[in-house]
Design a protein that fits this description.
137 residues, single chain, mainly alpha, 6 helices, 2 strands, two-stranded antiparallel sheet
């Protein structure tokens, strides 16, 4: 199939498909005598895998490492290792995000705990002092 049909079936722009091909992610591409690319039907599935993997956080290089030459030659151990590593990366990111969220929530509470008789400038100084940040004098 030509790139326009592949773009229609995959939902991706033709430029994106060409980019993936230039990066070596789409390998089973032949050229017709007029120079047009000719994509096999399995290219739709490969593009779906690439899109799904990117949405899961895989880089194009990571995808390229585990994407087989054809759909019948998946490298099971490498694929499983890559998937497990990505899960570990996501879990690590979740921990960092939870810490960042907790820090921001405590900062909001500290700022909101402004005494009635304190103006914003003095409250900012109070907050910075509470955080161990010495204000300019």
């Amino acid at each position: 199939m030509k790139i326009g049909e592949l773009a229609k079936r995959s939902g991706l722009a033709a430029s994106t498909i060409r980019f993936y091909e230039s990066k070596g992610l789409l390998k089973a591409v032949s050229r017709q005598s007029n120079g047009y690319r000719d994509y096999p039907l399995e290219a739709v599935a490969v593009l779906s895998i690439i899109s799904d993997a990117q949405q899961a956080g895989f880089s194009l290089d990571e995808i390229k490492q585990v994407l087989p030459e054809d759909s019948s030659s998946w490298k099971h151990d490498e694929l499983m290792a890559a998937l497990k590593k990505k899960i570990a990366d996501i879990e690590s990111l979740e921990v960092r995000l939870a810490q960042n969220k907790a820090h921001l929530l405590s900062l909001i509470q500290l700022i909101d705990a402004k005494p009635e008789d304190v103006d914003c400038k003095d409250n900012a100084a109070r907050v910075m002092e509470s955080l161990g940040i010495v204000g300019k004098t």
